[in-house]
Amino acid sequence: MATESSPTPAQPLQYPPTLQDEPLNPTLTALSTLSLLNLRLSRLEYLLTGKSDPHSQAHNETDRTTTADKDTTTPTIPTQLRTLESRLTHLKRLDGLPGSLVRMIDSLRREYPELFPSTSNSAHTSSHDLTPTPKHDLSHHATEVLSHSTLYTSTSSHLQTLQTLRIPPASQSANLLNAAPRLQQLRKRQEEVDSEIAELKGRSANVLEWWVKTGVVGMGELWEDWEGRVRDVEREVRRVERRRGEDT
Q: Where does this protein have compositionally biased stretches of type Basic and acidic residues (predicted)?
C-alpha cells in the first residue's frame, strides 16, 4: 500500500554566518553585516524606485558571502562599502518625494544624532539597564514621583475639561473663512484711517503753533506798541495844554 508523500517544507532564507556562529572570524562577520546592509538598501531602493528586487538581491549576496573562501571574484569589504555608499548617494539624488525623504532623514541624522542611536550605544544602555539599581536611587525616584503627583491629577482634570468642550459648528468656521477677505479690506481701511488721523494731528499741531506765535505773542507785541503810542499822545497833549496856559 502506497503511503501518501508529505509535502516538502519550504527552506527558510539562509543568511551568512553571524558573530555567534563564527566568533573568531571577523571577515565573515563583516561580510554578514554588509550582506544585511545590502539587503536593507535593496528593499529601500525597491520601495522608493520600484527597480530593485530585494529577494533576488538578498539571495545573490548570500551566495556570494557564504562562498567567500572559494570564489575569488567576491568583492572585497572596502569595495562593498563604496558600493553601498554610492547607492545611498544615488538615493539622495532622486527627484521628487523619494529623494526629499532620504535627504530629510539624512539631515535629521546629522543635526540630531540622538534620534538615531548606534548599536554600541544601545548595547551600552541596555547593559546599564540590567545592572541593579541601588535602594537610595529608588527612594529618590519614588520621592520625585510623589512630589509631582499633583501634576497628574491637574493634567487629568484639564484633559477631561477639554473633552467636555463643544466643537463649534462647521457653518461658523465657513462664515469666518468667507469673511476673511472683508476683514482684510477692513484692516487696510483701518490702516488708511490711522495714517489720515496721524496726518491731521500733525497739521493741527502746526496750526496751534502758528496761532500761539501769531495770535498770542503777536497780539501782545501789538498791544505793547499801541500802549506806547497812547503814552506819546498823552504827553503831547499835556505839553500843548501847558503852553496854552502859559500864553493866557
A: 52-72
